[in-house]
Amino acid sequence: MTHSIDLEELAFVATVMERAHRLLDAEEKKLPPRTADGLEGPGSPHQTLLGAGELARGVDDAVRRIALAVGYACAGLHSHALRAAHHAHAAPRSVPGGTDRMARPLSSGTIEALKLVRQVSDFFGEGLREHIDRSLAAPEATWPPADWKQYDEERMKSAASVASAGSVASRLGHHESVTAAPDQ
C-alpha cells in the first residue's frame, strides 16, 4: 500500500502557521526583557515573557517539521517524506500551553495567532482546537502553581487513579484475550 503526501495541505498549514509565528514573534519582542529570577507567579511580566517565547518556538518548530516533509517530498525521498509528514502532524509544543503563564488579557497579536492555529488545528489531531478555546477563555494565568506541594499531591493522586484504571483495564483486556483465544 502506497501512502501519498498532500503537498497542498502541507503548504497551506505551513503558511498559516508561519503567519501565526510572525505574530507571536512580534508580540514576544514587545515584552520587556527578563529581569526576574523566575520565582514570580502566573501572569507576571517574567512568566508572560516565558509563555510568549514558548508559543513562538512551538509554532516555529511546527513550521519546520512541515517544511522538512515538503522538502523530502520534493526531493523524491518518499519514505523520509512520509516519516516527516507523520511527525509534522504532532501538535505544536507549548501551543497553547504557553498562554497558561501569560497575563490577561492576552495581547491582540497572541489572540490572532492562536485563532490562526485554531483554523488548522484539525491537521494536528484531536484536542488542539478545544485546548486553544480554553486558553482564550481563561480569565487568568494558571502557571506556575502558587502552591507546589498541593500541585505535587494532586499530580500524585491523578497518576495513581490513572495507574489504577490502567491496571483494571489491563486485567480486563488480559481476561478477555484469554477467554477469546479458544474461539479463534
Walk me through the structure.
The chain has 6 helices and no strands. It has 184 residues and is an all-alpha fold. The chain is globular and about 55 Å long. The two termini are 27 Å apart.
Largest sheet: none
* Rg measurement, Å: 21 Å
Beta-strand percentage range: under 5%
Class of secondary structure makeup: mainly alpha
Helicity range: 55-70%
Q: H/E element string? A: HHHHHH
The pLDDT mean sits at 85
Distance between the termini: 27 Å
Number of helices: 6
Number-wise, the strands total: 0
Residue runs with pLDDT of under 50 for 5 or more positions? 174-184
Shape: globular
What keywords describe this structure?
184 residues; mainly alpha; 6 helices; disordered C terminus
How do you describe this structure in short?
With 184 residues, the chain is mainly α.
Please describe the topology of this protein.
Layout lengths: L6 H24 L14 H30 L3 H11 L19 H12 L8 H10 L10 H33 L4
Helix pairs in contact: 1-2, 1-4, 2-3, 4-5
